[in-house]
Amino acid sequence: MCCLAAGLERKIGIDSRIMNQLTNHPKLIQFIGLLVIFSLLCFFIAPSETNVLWRFPSLLAGLPYLINDSVEYLMFDWWPIQVYDPEIEEFEEKPLILQVTRAISASILFLIGLIREIILGGFKTIVTFTSWDFVSENKWARWPALPWTVVAGGAILLGYKLQGKGLAMLAGFSTIYLAVFGQWEPSMQTLSFVLFAAPVSFILGLTLGIWAYKNRNVELTLNPFLNVMQIMPHFSYLVPVMVFFGIGDHAGAIATIIFATPPMVRLTVLGLKRVSPEVLEAGMMSGCSNFQLMYKVLIPTARRDLLIGVNQVIMQCLAMAVIASFIGAKGLGFNLLLSLNGLRIGEAIEQGICIVLIAVVLDRLSLAWANKKTDYFAELTFIKRHKYSLLFLVILVAGSVLAYVGTFIFREGYNYLYIVPHNKGITIKDTLQNGVDWIWDTFFFALKGFNVFLIQEILMPMKAAYLSMPVAATLVLTMGVGYIIGGIRSAAIVGGFILFIALTEWWDRALITMYLMSFAVIVASIIGVTVGTLCAQNAYTAKFILLVCDTFQTFPSFIYLIPVIMLFGVTDTSVCIAVIVYATVPATRYTVEGLRSVSPDLHDAGSMSGVNRLQRWIKIELPMSFPHMALGVNQTVVFALSMVIIGAMIGTDDLGQYILKALSDKNGTGNGLTLGLCVAFIGLAVDQVIRTWANERKKVLGLA
Amino acid sequence: MSSSSPITQDTQPVIQCNSVYKIFGDNAKKMLQASKGNVDAKVFQDAGCIVGVNNASFEVPKGDLLVVMGLSGSGKSTLLRCASRLTDATAGQIFIDGEDLLAMSNKRLIELRRNKMGMVFQSFALLPHKTVLENIAFPLQVKGINTHESIKRAKDMVDLVGLDGRENYFPRELSGGQQQRVGIARSLAVEPDIWFLDEPFSALDPLIRKEMQDEFMRLQGVLNKTILFVTHDFDEALRLADRIAIMKDGIIEQLDTPANIVLNPATEYVRKFTEEVPREKVLRIESVMDPVDTSEVLSDLKVSKDAIIETVAEAVLGQEKPVAVIGADNQVVGAVHSSKVIHVLFGSRAGTENRN
Amino acid sequence: MSSKFIKTLGALVTGLMLVFGASTVRAADSSAPIVIPTHNWSSQVVMAYVIGGIFESMGNNVEYVSADTQAVYESIRQGDVTISHEVWQSTFGASFYAAMAKGGIIDAGTHAAKTLEEVGVPQWVIDENLCPGLPNWEALKNCKDVFATPDSGGKGRILEGPQSWHGQEYPDRVEALLGDDYVVKFAGGADALWAELAAAKKEGRGTIIFNWTPNFTDADGFVFIEWPPYYLGCRKQDGGDSKCGSPIGWLKKAANYKFPKTHPAAYTMFSRLSFNAGQIGQMAALVDIDGMTHEDAAKKWLADNEDVWKPFIGKGM
Questions:
Q1: Chains with 3 or more CB pairs closer than 8 angstroms to B?
Q2: Potential cystine with B125: which of A151, B121, B350, C132 (Cβ 3.0-4.6 Å)?
Q3: Confidence check: pLDDT of C316 > 50
Q4: Is the pLDDT of residue A203 over 70?
Q5: Is residue A179 within a helix (H) or strand (E), and if so which, with residue range?
Q6: Is there contact between C and B if contact means ≥3 C-beta pairs under 8 Å?
Q7: Chain A nearest C-alpha distance from B230 (Å)
Q8: If you classify domain A181-372 with CATH, what class do you get?
Q9: How confident is the model at residue C1 (pLDDT cuts 50, 70, 90)?
């Protein structure tokens, strides 16, 4: 930026100006020096496969095999025990760990099944307590489903009880949408899976968070794991989960929990640390035991952050709905993939809306539940005290009667008052499909020129440039940036991450991932900062744009992959656009938050010194909110990376394609995990640099 | 407030601190042992230790109100936290009702806090998720008292601090003054003997602060607790205290009654505080009264010997005859002459006024 | 007291086990459910419900689980999934044999349907004669421009399925036969292939994509490139020069190794089961063209085609 400024003022005293800039900014000299070294390295290192400085030898090529063999040994060979299999009436030798993980799977599956059958009916729960024989022989042993009217009524009642009319209406609208649009069964399947995964993630995250809060060593140990878990692409741990736990709803739930727990842990620690010491002391002086102090004082006081955690958990769980179906989760996610595979985009959008609605309702209900008040003075009769339970009983009876009556009304076909069968409701998929088609028709040719230009003039040259970097030069560049910004420590950390990737056999693939990511991050940041700045100008637009961000975060990204392919083909443009759509969310969110948090005093001070709107933005608001916005860029990188990997579903030749391939590899576990680590390390290296810089800046600005 | 006289009973003090030290830092204990009690803050600071409290000793007898006064960083809040064992003193002895606080088990400590101690905080420290009523009932519920009973007791406390009608408000819906009333009510809910107040009114507007101080004095008039009160406001200390301990750099510079501190500051530091203080705001009628002279004819007006001179000066000066001074039992214990009041009001302050 | 209770409970459980144990001594099928995987294309899902329906008509319990097409073989090996009823030779053959080499999965026979999985062009490319001489592969040499895309650097582009389907096979073949004139691009999934097909149709431009038959794209017409014929060992990984096309492939069925023991009757049916291309096409059409749900399509197909599937069960039913 300084250089630009200097360049513009070309006329007078250019030399002295630059000299001034340089002496005022010693880091600038360092950066220039670094670039010079980098260019020299690029120039002098010959691009030859035999040149070690061009591409490091893949010393870590054996790592995936090592991981794979260890896992297989652990799962299939270690400590065999004799197990009697009644089905074939033989003893079999089975490894211990496999038995243990399958037992865990069975209990998780039972819990998910239980929730599912309470809503949808079935007999698997009965099987658990009796046997398949019993159920086969006794056809009466079926648990009936709750009529959808009862579930909808229950949701409305719950919404009303927890908050009031608004929430009741939202809950009612959503449940009725699910039923009327014929998505009841898959929705409830997804719901039952979320109702298991979300509470487990919450409790697990809370427990780990408390542990980390109480014990600094635990926090330090946990941190790197959380970092890796959060950035590691979902696909890369699908195979390990499958090897350990098999496939089915439980495997999907476990993958979801792995993904949804880290933010909860982080927010728990953050929230607990932010509790004012006086509140803690007030608790102690009230005579709280350690337990009371934690559960009655600390946790409720840290509620704001914990609730953000709950919100994140729910969002992550539903964002995983589609990916979880790769390893057996039933419900909306699977159906959505099926629709997309037949290019039925209208149908897919309809299902996507269901996912968003479930996310929103669960989020609002949990929020309201945490905020409810108790009235101690009302003289309550039995009926008043149990008003809601009784009302639910009424709904249950009424719904059941209605469903029974339904059997007479709908003699032919389906009893719409009991369960609206899948895809037998009304639908707007044709309208949606027409909408998509209209967009396609209207913009296809207009966008074609843009597409060709982008690919030929920007993307391909950029990709070529990335691939033409000698690995030694890349390493020097990244470590140098780390050193300038965060000293030796940052340089070592960044260098370690990059070196790991360089020593695997996937360095070229990683470069392509980096190229896609950096292009998308640059564009997403520009869009995010612009949109964020415009919307941060007043409270209403700010609130509105944050809502839009929420929606985009839960709306399954798979859905817009297809229209994007139809518009831009199986090209890097499609991947980049899909990534940009997704990665703009955090850039926008953090910009809005950063700008809104600039103290109004500073605005006033600025106005009093006579700056205009634009000057105020450039001179005051931007610098003050820049550290926070930098963290937004950080998140943009994380989001972009995860989407670049999902971009493999469009067609890329980067790490993502190999991660997808790991699903069928013979040593898929090792490949998947190692590739996942490569992606995570790219993210962590960027994270290290940006975070260090933002923290330094915050200290300088007195915001830390 | 009830008794301005120093300890006369031979009962043991409720709070007793002997040579209490609190030093923050990794090897504070070792350094303290090496220094044999002669702590030099500078030396410690160079070694990475920060001296919070330096050899503090004091006693608070039953029903007495001791104000610890000092500027920020003087160690006054640390001293309070040592006395309530929110932080463990590095060295020294602290006795609560004769019981060694530092030797107490965690269980005993919790029991003590549940039954004997209450504390009010500068930033109110209310639980944001609980209503006024629930906040006040909290210490009772922590003790294991059932919801019905604890809420009933909390309701009484609400009435006591004058928050009637706001029971179901959340803290965020109250003004600062109201929030601190909740804090006070909460600290009193278990009917503690010992009351710790850590700058309770510092975060409030001056007008509200005055009102809250009056409220506080009214309450103490009724409740008669043993109080350790921390403030950085010298005026507040003078208004409320039975005795004041002035702290600087962790050391108690002077510990005495307000009148004695104003009249005889022990150190230069204390003198700086006192020199701006109007005497009439500190001294009580007692300090200017003469013994009863039976030959004198006294006015019909009677003033309490505990009254601050400023509050009754106008009335006394309005009388032609000397004014009768009465004690706690309404017996006449002396007489006050207007000349002495005038001396306090104008006598020694001419110089100060010129300087202004 | 409590120990007595435990004893009583123990006795009760033993008794129950005896009762149920007795009933498991049978030549008949176990009542434990047969787990059938569902993948993400229509014919496979409908066929899953069709086979499930046949099993149910025989008195078996059935469960469906959604699974990734490649990862499912590992699951069958572990016994988490019981069968797979559509193992396409060229796409899933590798995963299937990899799992078989590890043990735990068996070959349960082959469908009558012959499959062809190959790259090809949509019908309009032939109709409008965009590349004269197609479908013979040699015609491709002269029209790389027709199939060039912005990111192919002037070369013709062949859009393959994901790399997990055939690995290096197509890049090897293209390099051997077409040299530097064409590049192979891996698409992310079947949906990406169909999207490319739709986009190419809109523009009326030429495109070469990977496809197979029977498939729903058959309706609009799709012409496979005719490469030099396949012979055993012609592929690079088998030691050949890769100058050959795909074979007419088999469509196999796979099962967990315990399936014949636990469900002898069901296994016998499953190993006999065989659908031809026409029947598979019917199943897919019920969903893709008639817009039915997969379950409904399966029910309708079963009802309409009893003469086809009843014989698989054999005598005794």
A1: A
A2: B121
A3: no
A4: yes
A5: helix A165-180
A6: no
A7: 15
A8: mainly alpha
A9: very low
The predicted pLDDT at position B176 comes to 87
Q: Please write the tens of the pLDDT for every residue from A307-334.
A: 888 888 888 888 888 888 888 888 898 8
**CB-CB contact of B14 with B62 (8 Å):** yes
Pick from B101, B117, B120, B138 the residue to mutate for testing the A interface (most A CBs within 10 Å): B138
Position A347 pLDDT exceeds 50: yes
**Domain regions of chain C by residue span:** 32-113+250-313, 116-238
Cα–chain-centroid distance for residue C94? 12
Q: Mutual orientation of helices A165-180 and A184-214 as an angle, nearest 10°? A: 130
- B129 vs A: CB within 8 A: yes
A254 band by pLDDT with thresholds 50, 70 and 90: very high
Binary contact (B142, A292; C-beta < 8 A): yes
- Cβ distance B114 to A377 less than 8 Å, yes or no, reads no
Query: How far, in Å, CA of C78 to CA of A247, rounded?
Result: 10
Best mutation target among A341, A646, A669 (most C Cβ atoms within 10 Å) is A341
Q: What is the C-alpha to C-alpha distance for residues B166 and B158, in angstroms, rounded to an integer?
A: 8
Question: Chain A closest CA to B151's CA: distance in Å?
Answer: 8
Give C216→chain A minimum CA distance, Å.
9
Q: Tell me the pLDDT tens digit for each residue of C116-143.
A: 888 999 999 999 888 898 889 999 988 8
The CATH fold of domain B63-74+106-279: Rossmann fold (3.40.50)
Identify whether the C-beta of residue A125 lies closer than 8 Å to the C-beta of residue A113: yes
CATH code: domain C116-238 is: 3.40.190.100
Q: What average pLDDT does range C240-247 have in this prediction?
A: 86
CB C178 within 8 A of CB C244: no
CA dihedral B332, B338, B344, B350 (to 10 degrees): 180
Kindly report the nearest CA distance between residue A153 and chain B, in angstroms.
29
What are the extents of the domains in chain A?
1-44, 79-137, 147-166+379-426, 181-372, 436-701
Which residues of chain C does A337 touch, with a Cβ-Cβ cutoff of 8 Å?
40
Q: Which residues contact A115 (CB under 8 A, 6 or more apart)?
A: A192, A195, A196
Q: Provide DSSP, B96-109.
A: ETTEESTT--HHHH
The tens digit of pLDDT for each residue in C55-73 reads 999 988 898 988 878 778 8
Query: Do A181-372 and A436-701 agree at the fold level?
Result: yes
Q: Give the right CATH number for A436-701 from 3.40.1190.10, 1.25.40.10, 1.20.950.20, 1.10.3720.10.
A: 1.10.3720.10
Answer whether A378 touches B (CB < 8 Å): no
pLDDT digits (tens, 9 = 90+) for A629-665: 777 888 899 889 988 988 888 888 889 888 888 877 7
Nearest to C95 among A243, A440, A664 (CB): A664
- CA A376, CA B152: separation in Å to the nearest integer? 10
Does the CB of A570 have a partner CB in chain C at under 8 Å? yes
- Each residue's pLDDT tens digit, C168-188: 889 999 999 998 899 999 988
Q: Tell me, what amino acid is at A604? A: D
B280-355: what CATH class? Answer: alpha beta
Q: Which amino acid is at C235?
A: R
Closest to A285 (Cβ–Cβ): which among B84, B131, B143?
Answer: B84
Q: In the CATH scheme, what is the homologous superfamily, with its name and number, of domain C32-113+250-313?
A: Periplasmic binding protein-like II (3.40.190.10)
Q: Is B180 on the interface with A (CB under 8 A)?
A: no
* Residue entry with tokens 């001791």: B66
Q: Would you place residue B79 in the very low, low, confident or very high pLDDT band (cuts 50, 70, 90)?
A: very high
The predicted pLDDT at position A7 comes to 45
Could you report the predicted ipTM of this complex, rounded to two decimals? 0.80
- C-facing residues of A in 640-659 (CB < 8 A) are 647-653, 657-658
Q: A82: part of which helix (H) or strand (E)?
A: strand A80-85
Domain ranges of chain B: 63-74+106-279, 280-355
pLDDT tens readout for residues A513-567: 999 999 999 999 999 989 988 888 888 888 888 888 877 777 777 777 877 888 8
